[in-house]
Fold Down syndrome cell adhesion molecule-like protein Dscam2.
Amino acid sequence: MQIRATCLVQEGDQPVRYAWTKDARPLDARLGVRTSQLDAFTSILVIERAAAEHSGNYTCTASNAAAASATTARLTVNVPPTWVVEPSSTSVALGGSLALHCLARGFPDPVVTWRRQAASGEFVGVVEGTGSGESSIVQWKNGTLWIGRSARGHEGRYLCEAGNGVPPGLSKLVDITVNEPPWFRATEQRQEVRVGGTATLTCHAHGDAPLTLTWSKDAVPLSPLPRYQVSQHEEQDQGGTISKLVVTDAHLEDSGTFSCTASNTHGVRTSQLHLLVQDVPGHPSGIEVVEVGPQHLVLTWTSPQDSNAPITAYIITLEPQSPSAGAGAAREERVGGQERRLVLKDLTPATRYSLRVAAENRVGRGRSSPPVLGSTEEQPPSAPPRDVRVMAVSSSALRVSWEPPPHNSTHGTLLGYHLGYKLASDAEGAYNFTRVGGVGSIGVTSARVSGLSPHSHYSVVLRAFNSKGTGPTSPPATAITLEDKPSAPPGQVRCDGVSSSSLVVTWMPPPPSERNGVVTSYRVAFWKTAATEDSSEEAAMMSKDLRAQLDNLRPWMNYSVTVAASTRAGQGVASTPLICTTHQDVPEALTMVKAVASGPRAAVVSWAPPTHPHGRLTRYTVYWKAMGTGTGGEISRRVDPQLTHVTLHDLSHVAHKVWVTAATRKGEGPPSSVVMVKPSHSVAAGVWSVGGNVTAAWREDVSLPCGAVGMPEPTLVWTHDGVPVHTNKDRAVVQRDGTLSLSDLQRDDGGLYTCTATNRHGHDSALYHLNVLVPPSPPSLHVIETTTSSVRVQWNVEDTGGATIQGSSLHYRVAGDQWTQVAVTGDQRTYTTHNLQCGSLHHFYVTVHNHVGRSEPSKTESARTKGRPPQSPPKFQFVTTNSSQATLYLSQWIDGGCPITHFSVEYRKESVTTWTTVGTEIPPTRTYSLGGLEPGNRYMLRVTAHNTAGFAPAEYSITTPSLGHSVAADSGVSVWGGAPSTSSAWQELRVVVPAAVSTLTLLLTLTTVFVCLRKRSPARTHQKGSPETVIGTTEKIGPQEELYTTVRRPAPSPPQQQQQQPQQQQQQESREAQGDYPRDELYHYAAATYRVGNGTPPPPAPPSPPTHAHRPLSRGQKAFTALVYQAPSLHDVDCPNLAEGEGRVPWPRASPPHGPAGVADSQSEGYGSLMSPRGPSPPAPGAPHHRHPAKHPRGPRTCVRNVRFP
């Protein structure tokens, strides 16, 4: 049918353009629509054959240059229905689903309707729905007929009709047929039976007849066994056919899948019947400790064969291996059958456990797995040290004593204690901690804390620690150090003169921090500072106040004053000498006055200044008086204070009395003694110089005046100690005025000098006592006390040089360093140098000086501060390894009293000679990890510890275990703290070789026993009560003899002692060759114990921790002991390898001399093992001592050595 549409423009300017669209889109060429323009104002759209797809909105748009105009018209094309999917007759299996499609198209969309022919012949409609019911028949919206689960009632004729109101409509009649192939109400069954029981398997099949039923097992036709009985019959009530298979006396191999196959013309169907013959499960395998903690172990395992019964539970038996646990300490834990992992909690730290796993099902509980050993890690102690007591032992030290934490709270081997101390007034967290004790510090119960402040209140706490950390802190214990002498002088010392004979001294107490106790008094020392005064004139007075008055002093005298505080411990440091001067006073009388006639009416009067002027002299006054005159009449003349002689003129020719006084600003002093002089025309020789005592310093110049008068002029002669002075020497010259000048004085220039003047009228002389002061003689120095950081020296001065010693200079240095000088004031003759290098050699010399000069140095003395180079720990305390690294416990080194400054670490493979340096300045931390090692290799490790006293190298041999190396209890080996492994320990040569050697040893021993028994004489055999038989000896083994024993070898001697021990070595070798070892030279622990009779002997297990004990074997076991190489443990590298030091036995006698390092080796290396020639070393100093076993008398000798047959 053709359709035309015309678009007509009524008006508008030309040209006009036309555009057609359908549904707002350009026309699709596939629609077959064409357009044409009749004239300028008309356009036509033509559809040759209209179809449903032509329906839509058509728009004609006319446009010119001015505007555009559009118009739209709707086209609807009606199409009768046509089949898209035409339904057809079909069939469906019984119980199957069926989708019968009926789909038509047209315009409008056709409506599809299904109807079913009823029993009356009429067609009734099918309900439209979603088809959710399995047995329902529904019509979907898209026209599909759906049968979810076909049944017999679904058979019949069905009509599908499609119509949209446009004739003609569509319809189709179809038939649906339902077939019944074989089927089972239950396609799978499960039946369980115990071993030996009877199982009946029933197969009930349905379907169109005829039905055929056959049996098979595991896809194989059923075997014709007598125990398999098959029967078959038709079921009348429920329909179908039943076949029964009866299995009698069920075996485990009967378990499996029995298949019942039913077949007819419509198909084949199989029903599976699973028969489970059940038994108790086997033991789990692959038991492994995969995680270790202080209070937990994580255990994993592999399920056993379940014996066709689901495992309902696993029972884990946990038993501590510590003897302290006692009987009944084992516990069981149950987990569900689906678990393959269990976290064992609430365990005791540092304890070895035996672990077994058993499986359980509804049949019963199976056998337990072989035991696996696992050890919990250490954890920090959970309790502090007990009963901490502190007692002062000196002004700078406290003695701290305590009891160790309870044994069950140490959680491992104690490595020591952290002792903290602080001033009680300091903040709570201000404790200074230091480490005391070492491995096995369970026996360390006291320590000394030094370097404290005197008379100070201290608080002390203690914390025990092991390899995992530090435990809780003990409650603080307090004590006060003893008093000491004050370490600082009083302050603000001041001295004031109050009179010519008194001084007042005031001061303030020393700083509180340096009083070092309660100040009970102050000592005020004072002495005259004149160079000629002897120091023995020092005086002192005590005062309890802060003021003292010094009386009965000399006027106008310089005094040195010091103040020192005193406590009950003694007098402390004196203050710096303070020079004080008393007030002036009138001078004392002149003691040396001389008058000589110098002419008919003249005389010369001379005098020496007063010995104690008591002030600054202002004048002299010379008095004279002619004899025969009455009272009064004396004449005086004042003389300047710098003059010491005066000439008197116009004297009468009579005798005159002459005397002299001195004056200060305080007044005129008393007169001197009176001297007589009489002028004369004949003037006899006279020496007006008064002479006296003259003191001069060494190498100075001095002039001794000899003023003389006389007529004629007298002759002067000088003598020294009665010997004329030779003036031709350079150092002795007599001047023209008679003065003797001595230059560059030496000590032997001192003595009595006499100047004698002589003429014909007489003679006179003046005497001089010359004292030459020289520097002191070299002092004698010696050391009186040393500590780790100080040296106390003392010196004596035999000759002070005639002058007071004013001070000393002490010089000291550490060997090879620069000298340090310390000034020591006053008459102090001892000094303590502090802050010296610990354990180092120091040199000392001292000089002293007086006001003349300094002495020659003393002889240099050497002293070493206390302390020694570090001491290396044994290997079991120092190093632990795993497959790729070694952990070094640097804190286990003994510092020798001087703090360790740094370490250097080197290592090499045992097969390589070149060392690899890891570090040369490693700080002294607690641990240091050496990584990059290869598994399964032996390494040599060289560690050098340095302190100020020197350095100490130590070499260790370590072995990195192979990857995955851990051993279960079945093999007799356990890694303490490691995870067990199921790998065979016999694959390693270090186990095979010792085992083979031990086996050979056992065979040789048995042969020796047999030979000894054969060679016994008959007389000895029938002796009554003779204990010489092997049987008698072994039957009488008591508890003490059941301990395993190994022979102790002597410790290696130092090189300097090796030359002294050849005879002892020969005796030892002879005794070893004879097998004659005394009872006290047997160690009561063997390196390994092998069981005989249950296959190849297992490799050795490491010894138990020190807190555990070895269990003796039961009487039913045969055992032999052997010394074998012990592989390093593989546990966490952060835990010390404590196993290497376990099982240590005390020395029954006095400890033998130490080796060169002075440190005992680990006990495991101390045994005389087959793998190492080294013998045991004595326990380290300070190591805990244990009560050694009672010494038994030596029993009769037999041919058996180290073999036990319980």
About this structure: The first strand starts at residue 3 and ends at 8.
